[in-house]
Automatic annotation (TrEMBL):
Gene that encodes the chain: cobS
GO CC, any one term: plasma membrane
Localization (cell): Cell membrane
This enzyme's EC code(s): 2.7.8.26
Protein name as it appears in the record: Adenosylcobinamide-GDP ribazoletransferase
Organism of origin: Pseudovibrio exalbescens
Length: 272
């Protein structure tokens, strides 16, 4: 995650939606985005009280290059597993494995510690433990296998659309959890970058729901709706687990939530 000096959050910065999207892309990925105007200040930390509204749309754009690779490689004789692996790998490269890092920390902390304090201590450790390594390996393998199956079952175009949808919807759940749940760490994300307000959360929900409804109704109505419900259920389950294990949200939990929710969406495509 990028590091910044302590921001001044006395008043939320008023920015246009394109600037908010650009800010989120810079924060959640390695994609270089130039300043879009005088109100787009790159060297200042983001104020997610308002900017968080653009997180799902930023997720869509961040995953778009990987979806294009999926389409491009699908036009060759490469096996579906190779195509799916390339898509997942490019997504990880573009995000700098930001969410994957949170996932490994959550696996290590939640299942390696016996007290709240010990779990938080483990999650702050930059080293990867056994639970984190195993959790990362299993989720990556499942993501590749499910995406390859989507290529076979739906075709390249529909699979690419569903992949983008899964990434955007998962980030919507991030914003909801970030907005509605207490922070597990004093001086955590809410203090450093601002807690998303309800306006930002509603924006994020509406944009993600619109995208999900449009794409799933057009390309895979029944499977897409079931996948969305499964994704929401898994995100909610992780929120409940985080409340029980560490008492609330952290940056690592939000990263893990994105990974689990997007994977659950792909999983839900094949329940019927």
């Amino acid at each position: 995650m990028p590091t910044f000096s302590q921001p001044d959050h006395s008043e939320p910065r008023e920015q246009s939606l394109p600037v908010d999207i650009a800010t989120c892309i810079r924060f959640f990925s390695r994609i270089p985005i130039p300043a879009l105007g005088p109100d787009d200040v790159i060297d200042q930390p983001p104020d997610f009280r308002r900017t968080a509204r653009a997180i799902p749309l930023a997720g869509l754009l961040i995953s778009l290059p990987a979806a294009c690779v999926l389409l491009l490689f699908s036009a060759t004789d490469l096996p579906d597993l190779v195509v799916a692996t390339s898509c997942v790998a490019l997504t990880a490269i573009l995000t700098g494995c930001l969410h994957e890092d949170g996932l490994t920390d959550v696996f290590d902390g939640f299942f390696g510690g016996h007290t709240r304090e010990k779990r938080l201590l483990i999650m702050h450790d930059s080293r990867i433990g056994t639970f984190g390594a195993l959790g990362m390996m299993l989720t990556v393998l499942l993501r590749i296998a499910l995406l390859a199956q989507a290529l076979d079952a739906f075709g390249a175009f529909v699979a690419a659309v569903l992949y983008i949808t899964s990434e955007a919807l998962a980030r919507c759940f991030m914003v909801i959890a970030w907005n509605s749940q207490p922070s597990a760490n004093p001086g955590g994300l809410g203090q450093r970058f601002g807690l998303p307000d309800w306006e930002a959360a509603i924006w994020a929900v509406l944009s993600a729901l619109f995208l999900t409804l449009v794409t799933t109704l057009v390309v895979a109505p029944l499977s897409g709706m079931i996948a969305g419900l499964v994704s929401a259920a898994m995100a909610y389950g992780l929120v409940l687990l985080a409340r029980r294990k560490i008492g609330g949200m952290s940056g690592d939990v939000l990263g893990a939530l994105q990974q689990i929710a997007s994977l659950a969406f792909l999983f839900g495509l094949f329940l019927l």
